[in-house]
Write a structure and sequence with these properties.
Blueprint (H helix, E strand, L loop, with lengths): L1 E7 L2 E10 L6 H12 L4 E12 L1 H16 L3 E5 L3 H9 L7 E3 L2 H9 L3
Parallel strand pairs: 2-3, 3-4, 4-5
Antiparallel strand pairs: 1-2
């Protein structure tokens, strides 16, 4: 999995691509997230439309991310889950836990309303 981050209107935007398998390489994302939380960016829009494959360990990565933001008083939106990711969220009923938006712009708008 690869990811890119940017700040848009005070909201952390993470764009993930590739396979989300929960490998050791993905611990880097948690270091990045922690730095942003410490800087006061506690809201996040995570685009996962380019995730090709995700397993249960990859799901745990998303759950850990959500937990970090919520424990910091913030929120995280998943943006446009890929078909495979959406199916996995539905099967595991995690679609009721995560907030989902169709676009990064819609997620940012929702998150800004929480600030």
């Amino acid at each position: 999995m690869t990811y890119k981050t940017e700040l848009t209107e005070g909201i952390l935007v993470i764009r993930m691509s590739g396979d989300l398998l929960g490998t050791a390489d993905e611990n880097d994302i948690f270091i990045t997230i922690q730095k942003h939380i410490e800087a006061g960016q506690v809201h996040c829009a995570t685009q996962i439309s380019d995730i090709n494959y995700m397993n249960s360990t990859g799901l745990s990565v998303l759950i850990r991310m959500l937990t970090k933001f919520r424990n910091s008083g913030g929120e995280m939106f998943l943006v446009k889950p890929s078909q495979q990711a959406e199916k996995l969220l539905l099967i595991t009923k995690l679609n009721s836990i995560f907030s989902v938006a169709d676009t990064v712009e819609n997620a940012i708008s929702e998150l800004k309303a929480k600030i």
